[in-house]
Amino acid sequence: MVESRGSRGIAIGETGVADEAFLADWSALSGFGAVAGTNGVERQAASVADGEQRSWFAALLEARGFTVVRDRIGNQFGLLELSPGAPYVIAGSHLDSQPTAGRFDGAYGVLAAAHACFRVAEELRATGRAPRLNLAVANWFNEEGSRFKPSMMGSSVFTGKLQLEVALATTDPRGVSVREALAGLGELGEEDAFGPGTGREAASYAEIHVQQGRSMEEDGVTIGLVHATWAAHKFGFRVTGEQAHSGSALMADRRDALLGAARLVVAARELADEFETGALHTACGELNVYPNSPVVVASEVELLLDLRSPSREVIELAREKLMAVVDRVRAEDRVGIEITAEHAWDQNPYPEAGVALAQRVADDLGLAHGRVMTVAGHDSTNMKDLVPTVMLFVPSVNGVSHNLDEYTRDEDLLAGLRHLTAVVRSLADGALAG
Ligand SMILES: [Zn+2]
User: Fold this and answer.
1) Of 52, 172, 306, 331, which sits 20 to 30 A from 69 (CA to CA)?
2) Which one, of 295, 294, 315, lies nearest residue 306 by Cα?
3) How far, in Å, from the CA of 143 to the mean position of ligand 1?
4) How far apart are the CA of 58 and the centre of ligand 1, in A?
5) Low-confidence ranges of the chain (pLDDT < 50)
6) pTM as predicted
7) Residue 1 lies in a domain
8) How many separate domains does the chain show?
9) How does 174-189 read in b/e, with b if 16+ C-beta sit within 10 Å?
10) Cα(430)–Cα(433) distance, rounded to whole angstroms?
11) How many angstroms separate the alpha carbon of residue 89 from the centre of ligand 1?
């Protein structure tokens, strides 16, 4: 076994064989939905590529003695019951991706969770000791929300924040429902996996993810102790005008929905500049134009617009300013603007006990660590409201995210796995479980 050394001088070779097993599985997982000529992947929720990776993942779990179950929203769990009847530590993240995305976002967390549980299970088997809690690995369905909205769908249903029937009836842009897509892959379960009537209870949760930002890389931090989520306010807007010939209609007569939408896109960008640098992030990530035809003034545009900030006050002020722009565009461009969807959350702390546990583990392992906030939501954002939760980050080179070039170094992947393993070991022994 080759003893290797991380760029920060951290020995990562002690668990060499297990590390090699992880990297081999990582390489295999990265092949599903691989985008030719790039290092990235495309495996949106319940796509063919997602189905393939789910089958592969189920086989991996079963080969290690885990029982695989799917719940009624397609969350995939690997269960290892070592202490009959005891509640479970769940560790996981999501395998689905955005279109033309990086291979690390979510997938690293799922595979690291699996290997952390494999390692803890092996230790327990070797000693013959039964832990206080059983082990579960989770692959949450549709965290990204690119094909089916909203994001974090599987963990939202699991934690009772989204109704199962609403989620199953959600359709993609081609009219295929979540229910149809999951059933078509054989990934729609018929029962809950946890909770009343299942005989299984979740006691705690752990997740590791690549940072979707570059502060850890800049600060030389290997393990991010995630202590809060940024606040966010997401809007769906429908801008309506009147269809007309784009050449012959008099300029003064036009009611151009695309112009109105464009003003909102620009307003969102300019809003960010009205606050201190870094205080507000804004974006329009999706725009659907009708009829989207060369010689036609658009009659309708649907767009999704996000406001994000660590501060709820900033979000509230930004929302007011945005609504003032909406009123002005309605009047000046003579278009209709309605809000079709709104989804907001406050700055949201993770439990301090989980942060403290993660910090102790990092100290024990000699891994450079620091407290960080997450801008993006994660499945742990839901799970922390249900059970004691630990959320961890590893660095991402240049903070590149939702991009084919997303990259995290092997040494950081392995350091994160070592850390997560120690967290799962502690949780299985009852840490945070009261
Ligand atoms: Zn993710």
Assistant:
1) 172
2) 315
3) 7
4) 20
5) 1-13
6) 0.89
7) no
8) 2
9) eeebbbebbeebebbb
10) 5
11) 20
